[in-house]
Specification:
alpha+beta; GMP Synthetase, Chain A, domain 3; about 25% helix; about 25% strand; globular; three-stranded mixed sheet
């Protein structure tokens, strides 16, 4: 029996589904049912097992069709309109919040507005405004700075085409000053801070206990052409 691991655009989680009866490959997009409703996700892994796990995995509904992909593109257009509307209403009501992203579920049953704020925000009247205009279920979700960076996305300082939080991280742990000091990096915040304004997630890639065994900082590198200085 085949199990498909599926990832979704706004979620860090990867969820397993039974792909029995549906031929899928890594990179395929498929339609599934999650606790949020009907969603479109991307297959990141295919595995074969002798029998399905006892937690009764849900089945993949189907491989995404051309019409499914077309409807998903229409949802993106709706998201743009909904974002503009939400920003306008936030400004009109002078709410202390910043909209990060809007997500229409694939079946259109719900619109999720992700936002950041320093404190708790009373957005009840805003929800009424949005529901009146969009005529669908509205969900407001407050997120942190790291989650905002994952949702928005950006090229990483190391030239990866996406930052780590968006590209592959499933759990985003806080980074301590102790971790920075243990790697002998100093406290140059301009170099250690990511687009979220927090210490970069990649600082956690080397555990504290392994830091002393890492190579010392290289001051220069010699090549056939020339010597490069740090």
């Amino acid at each position: 029996m085949n199990i498909a691991t599926v990832r979704f655009p706004t979620s860090r989680k990867k969820i397993n589904f039974s792909s029995c009866g549906t031929e899928l490959r890594i990179g395929d997009r498929c339609i599934v049912t999650t606790e949020r409703g009907v969603e479109l996700g991307t297959v990141t892994e295919i595995s074969t097992v002798e029998r399905l796990p006892e937690d009764n995995l849900k089945k993949v509904l189907r491989k995404a069709t051309e019409r499914d992909l077309y409807l998903n593109e229409k949802n993106k257009s709706k998201e743009t309109r909904a974002a503009a509307l939400c920003k306008k209403r936030i400004e009109a009501r002078k709410l202390p919040m910043k909209l990060s992203r809007v997500e229409y579920l694939f079946d259109g049953s719900r619109v999720i507005f992700y936002f950041t704020a320093d404190h708790r925000v009373d957005f009840r009247e805003l929800v009424k405004d949005l529901a009146r205009e969009l005529r669908t279920r509205i969900e407001m979700r407050q997120i942190g700075a790291r989650d905002e960076a994952r949702l928005v996305g950006s090229m990483g300082c190391c030239a990866l085409h996406e930052n780590c939080s968006r590209l592959f991280l499933t759990e985003m742990e806080s980074v301590s000053v102790k971790t920075v000091k243990s790697q002998g990096l100093g406290m140059n915040l301009s170099r250690l801070t990511g687009m979220c304004g927090r210490l970069k997630c990649c600082l956690n890639f080397i555990p504290d206990e392994e830091a002393p065994n890492c190579p010392h900082q290289i001051k220069s590198v010699e090549t056939e052409a020339e010597t490069a200085e740090d």
